[in-house]
Amino acid sequence: MECLGASSVQNLTDLSALLATRQDDDDDEDFRNVTACAQLGPGHIGTPPKKDKEVSTGHVNKNSKDIWREEEVAEGSQYDDLADPRPQPEYEIILKQSVGTEDLFLGMHRKDPSSMCCEAMLVKIKLPDTKATDVVLDVKEKFLDLRTLKYKLGLHLPHPIHSDRGKAQFFSEREELEVTLLMNRPMDVINMQ
Fold it and tell me: How far is CA 127 from CA 86, 90, 112, 150, 176, in A?
């Protein structure tokens, strides 16, 4: 047993010598290449990452204390009023398509049920105990602002719309406002043909 123990110690010593880095590697060129390759990892594959470039401040006023540029601020953020206690009404956004029989049965206009083929957006807003004359509605390209005596809604729209081509209708019996907005997507001319 003692002999077996001594040989296993010798085997561990030999293994340790093989795995240890050598201090005197002047004569072993292959060993240097192996250790250099061993230091490489998955992040070294491909082109090296570019250094962070400094942001050009040629168009920014250096004396300005602004945190953001005007184009970085989301549209409609000027309507956010945290001190306003009015609650947000319930609303629902529905995407609409104009589909005819040639689309349904023959597939002539390449329309499908996806949201990419929708032309309009319908926003249904429940306004209980509200009259149509109390509603103030302002629609921008990406923001809908609705204010009444009891409610306030600042809604960032999921798609850009034509702000001048929408329509709104108030249904007194349901106490609901329906706003239909035509979507403005640059590829619609190509996709809807």
Answer: 12, 8, 33, 9, 5
